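name: query_chain
kind: protein
chains: 1
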Amino acid sequence: MKRLLITAIICAAATGAFAQSTDTTKTGTDTTKAKKGFHISFGKGESAAHLDANGIDTMDYSRHSKAPGFSWGVTFTRFDLGLTTLVDNGSFKLSPQNDFLRYRSWKTSNVGFDLLQFSYRFNSTFKIYISGGFDWTLIRLRDNITIQRGGDQLTYTQDNIDYSKNRFSSTYIRVPLSFDFRTHENANGVRWHFVVGPDLGFLINGRVKQISDENGKQKMNGDYHFADTRYGAFVRVGHGALGMFAKYYFNDMFQNSPPQDGLKNFAFGVMVGF
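structure:
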């Protein structure tokens, strides 16, 4: 996952530089009407440059309204970094049958970002978009156990090894549908965003990663009874490029494992990019 994150960050920096270079070479920009139709966006915002001959921005952002239109393309945005909490039948305390999943709260995290987006802007203050990206749930287990692959239900073995890291994780393709309510841009071209919508996920794989003096670094992949498909809802609130998010998934984290019925996933944290 580290290699994928580094690659994504490099792509984001490159596309940002491309967007900035494109903006600084534009001339004769139409300041009164946005164009309709499809266009490819590489991480660019919607704001165009509205400069006079002296390079001064002449746009009245409080009155300017963009025309409706579609947009689609490659992006790197809505980078989420937060904490994950397990909810056991409505309680933040794990039940006895799930106690083996005890985790370190401050090291149990959620990471995700979007790479593709298709959107329709109704006006300057409302936009909907469907996007696609990746989402990781990283559970740092407290106990020296090994979650087992396969079997009729989720099981584990108790180990006589002191793990310095014992992480149980899942990787999903995420497909959120966002309803973006926005304020008008201020004089600096930034605005508030209030975003809500449903979130659909498709399992790529599960993983157990362990580090110990006895065995070194070990990685074991499998489905580990993680739900093949998950569905939930999210909310995002922010100003400019920075914000906060919260996600809650309505279906159980694990499938075909009756002792884990009612165990759900809740995540919250900070995000970059709207």
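note: The two ends are 23 Å apart (CA to CA).
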